[in-house]
Task: structure prediction
Amino acid sequence: MYRAAKRFLNTFKRKSNTDKRLITAIETIVGSKPLNLYLYRLATLHSSVANVDNRGYKESNERLEYLGDAILGAAIADYLFKKYPFKDEGFLTEIRSRIVNRESLNTLGKRIGLDSIIQYDKNHSSKLSHKSLYGDTLEALVGAVYLDRGFSFCKSFIIEKLIIPYFDIQNIVESDVNFKSKLIEWAQKENHSIEFEIIHIKTEGRHKEFTAEVTVSEEKKGQGYGFSKKKAEQDAAKKTLQLLGLIEKE
Amino acid sequence: MYRAAKRFLNTFKRKSNTDKRLITAIETIVGSKPLNLYLYRLATLHSSVANVDNRGYKESNERLEYLGDAILGAAIADYLFKKYPFKDEGFLTEIRSRIVNRESLNTLGKRIGLDSIIQYDKNHSSKLSHKSLYGDTLEALVGAVYLDRGFSFCKSFIIEKLIIPYFDIQNIVESDVNFKSKLIEWAQKENHSIEFEIIHIKTEGRHKEFTAEVTVSEEKKGQGYGFSKKKAEQDAAKKTLQLLGLIEKE
Result:
């Protein structure tokens, strides 16, 4: 009985120390203390150390990651929409995907110090499966902040504490990813022939919509669309790179 | 001078009638009158009839569509997260994509009566390019409601006025899309041989992650992942269907 009590108190003490560190970290990262600490505990709990409860339900940060991903997308969509009132949706989509992608979120997660509060199985985990550990946890954190404080607070947190301090948007806008030259480079390196062809032009009122197709070593690959030949080719190149697994799908 | 004035007044009158109809429609669909009517005018303005302003900037509903798409995703993520507290993120992602896809949004757009308020070029537009006219406008409307009334109102609008009345979520959850049998069906019809193979098993702590690969007529197609062989095969079948253009990419 005494032992059980001691064990219970130890557990409590241990948790309490972890919690204290978590509270401090959240206060630093988010700018406010957690209201509902449970959410932040969950956000930092990787599935590799999650316990399965009586119902067979495994509690980890994966559900919060799903939620946070959507909230992050919405907050950044809103931010870019207002920041660039005269840019079209293609531009906004492109810039958002340059900000929110696995690699950049992972880097951001590390930079804000999530490594000190994530709980995961350090022994049984291969490097591969953790290449998005910080990014995933960052998304889960966004989910927790959203549930804890609501959309408006969470949006400010995302913009003021994550985007503005860590992303040089102007630089991101100016850096032009050239998918076509990337694909040509790859083809040359791998000894593949490569061809770009405009296979269809649709006249739509005052506009023309072009369809481009890429052929790699006689094999038809990605098709792309755009209101100029150049844009259609870029899109086709991008889709081909995705098909070939050379860049990630959005 | 008199003519110019008359023309001006006619323009005003015409606009005013269109606006009146728009206000009534928005009140019916959203449940409240617009605060900023401009947003709703823009949301219902298809690019086929959009004017280019002095700066060369074309004003249509496409930017609002981009914003609305993100807000819709966030609102439904939140709704499903809370509705299914013990379901994993794979389930939540799947159900959301069954609710929010081009086809279902398009049907929904028609059902709530967007056809009566969308302004588009009825002469110069092929059917093809308008297969998502209503769905796109619906997203733009969500964007307008969000900017006009804020996230919380917009979320309620989405859930109470769009999702609950028009989607049978229980039915959506229970309908199991079987990609594997869909793919096998297709292969038989098209006289292709088809093979499913587990090509990799990764042991991750207490879990195993399977990688399945589909081969169609000796040609390697989609690879899929899952925590069971069945799930990996379903995923590989789905990706193959996407590669073959038989189902849409998410």
Notes: The two ends of chain B are 57 Å apart (CA to CA). The first strand of chain B starts at residue 194 and ends at 204. Chain B has a mean pLDDT of 87.
